[in-house]
Specification:
2 helices; three-stranded antiparallel β-sheet; Immunoglobulin-like; alpha+beta; 39% strand; seven-stranded mixed β-sheet
Length: 150
């Protein structure tokens, strides 16, 4: 015959182990299901630019999948420690570009020709990408690189 206090202690341990196991399973599932932010990265050739300087961006696909992206640039400016939209890009091609697994592509941009007025500050340049051949904000992710304009 097992004492009542020993049975309560045993049930308590099982509840704690079940909770730990459940958290572990959730963490593993999240890692396995997410398209890691490190799978596709956006890099710039340096950090600090003048407002009329050309920026060399490199988009790298470190995943095992073909990735699609467009010529559109997402530009955000840092205000009070938070990034907000710096405006809409003047024009860009709607053509989707494909980036093979484990490859990269370099592009040159000049923000002064793409966006109306830019003042000195910290910015974030982004590229929308997806493994689907239809880019939408719902099914896509954004790779960002931070820069500073002087």
């Amino acid at each position: 015959m097992v004492s009542k206090s020993l049975l309560i202690t045993y049930k308590g341990m099982l509840n704690k182990l079940s909770a730990i196991l459940m958290i572990f399973v959730i963490v593993i599932m999240c890692c396995a299901c997410s398209n890691s932010a490190l799978d596709v990265v956006l890099l710039s050739d340096k950090y600090t630019y003048t407002t009329d300087e050309e920026i060399v961006l490199t988009i790298e696909n470190n995943s095992e999948d073909l990735v699609y992206y467009s010529e559109q640039i997402i530009l955000q400016v840092e205000i009070d420690g938070k990034y907000v939209s710096a405006g809409e890009q003047a024009s860009y091609s709607e053509v989707l570009l494909g980036l093979e697994p484990k490859s990269k592509n370099e592009m040159k941009i000049n923000l002064k020709y793409l966006f109306d007025s830019l003042s000195p500050g910290k910015y974030r340049i982004g590229k929308l990408y997806s493994t689907s051949d239809e880019l939408s904000e719902v099914d896509s992710e954004i790779a960002f690189v931070e820069i500073e304009l002087k």
